[in-house]
Amino acid sequence: MIRLRLPKIRPVFLIIILILLGIFIREYFVRRPPEVLVPAGLDEIIIDSGVSNDSMPAIDESVFESVAAADTYLENDGLGIALTENKIARFFPFQILVWHHVVNDVWGRVPILVSYNPLCGNSGVFESYTSEGILQFENSGQVLNNSFLIADKTSDSLWNPLSGQAISGTKTGQSLHRLTSTVMTWNSFKKNFSDGEVLSRETGFTRDYSKNPYGDYFSSPDILFPLSKFDASLPAKTLVYSYGSLVYPGDNIKSSKLIDGETDGKKIRMLWDEDWQTVRGFGLVDDGSLADEVPLVPMYWMCWGTFE
């Protein structure tokens, strides 16, 4: 009988093989294209998410607390939306917004909509009035390209919070004015705005704000709903910042410290703010100095392609 002698595989080679296999599997799942629909019309790509305003209620009566009070439960690396004007600052923690998506609030004397769109990694603040009057918003339960659509309570028209524009209903084509807001960590906010105020857990609803209803969605490559199109040049959940037609990955802005561009005849600089530990945008004057701050739009790459 002839016995075959298989070559011995050294442990170091086995480890290398396992590492390479792990890299391949990770790259496959991170870069694999999501499901893409080929729709004939808008109605075909608006999907019922199964999440209604009853299960994900908008906050209509905001209660705020001090930085010291909020610091007893907010995590230092937890993100949120910061509104700042002169020395006044307000923080809306994602830890709370993830359960509500929408806050109808007032900033100064201006009625505002604060929106958090977790499936697209997007957030924004808008003046919530049009020529027809002040609007209040709630969750519609509908999703377009992984963006949770919201509805105004007056006409029930659907609005896409990525753009602040009504896409369906009697207000179709109307747009809300976007205000400058910044996404930063709780640690950065409390260091820079110790006298600021923070959206509290007194929302009027019973929710466990220590938990995330979306589980590991933010750390996984999973995409919950189909897209109408997809650009595979970047992983789907790469966080990008945009202004007009300009769009750059957040990591590129941070590593480069600043990136200049031009859109619609306006020069823009996106930069990494070391003090705030976040990305900010400014108009750029011909002599290289900074003009007023501009509202950047953060979102995942997969949503940018459909939003544009």
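The above is record 1. Record 2 follows with the same two-line structure.
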Amino acid sequence: MRAEPIRNVLTLFALVASSGCDVIYGLERDPPPEFENYDRCGSFLFDEPLRYASIGNPNVVVDGDGNPIGLMPWSWDDARTQCQQRGMDLAVFNDQRELGMGAEDAAWPYWIGQRTIGTVAETVDGCPALTAPSSLHAIACGMVTTANEIGGASCDGQLPPMMEPNVVIGALCETPRPDSIACLGQNPAAVEYFLSDSTLTYDRAKAFCASNDAHLVVVETHEEWLHLSKRTKTEWEKPFWLGSRFDGTTWKTENDCFGTYSWTGGTPGTPANGSCVASKVRVVDDPEEGLSGTVLDGVEPTACSEPQSFALCEID
């Protein structure tokens, strides 16, 4: 009786994996944290639609017609690597509310950023978690098994035969919590942005901004993303570089803050697809839907040597 829902989950993750897009969403925050008492490991939630991303087990088994019929095991380490390739890490739940809300758009069981090695519990960000994963294994990797339950499993992603499904089918990624108040973002209307006159390679775009006492734009909040989207449509109408580069493990920004990304194409964090990141724009002309003009779709990995994007600089 449960085969059809699981087949639907497999189909969903197969589509997500093939599209190159992430399922992204955020959590509500109330009341806002007192920034002057900012604690990186605090239990408050960021009101950021780009803060979390749900990704699917990419090890899909298909039949002769290409239809998904099963999944191969997907390890905790491999899931963490894929989160890091997006400029994120596996999510750590700091309280029950975050667990309950964070599970809304993810299919269980999914990996999270917690492990228990013997009797020692650890998290990927060093912050205390809601609860420690436990299992019969010497090393138990954390996973969410139902909407409000954290469990542990063998870190290779193979679950007991009596479980259905008997492999971990997804992972929840999270943008790392900023180390400093300065990286919590600011009102983008108070920030000065300016665009180069021509397309440049990444290094030349970076140098152009530096020569004007600025740096390539680093998107820190959803509010800033909406601001850039509006100005792309009304003013710039051009694709632009973001101030972030892949270092072999994750994405490092020009201002040492954690950037937020809305990946729409390509596989991030793979040098073959580009070690720099640029915005993706498209021209829309759909009178029936009331849409027209240049739309900022998201970002995609881009070869740093390609002079196909403009320098978008910001002065904080």
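Helices lie at 3-19, 76-84, 96-102, 202-211, 222-236.
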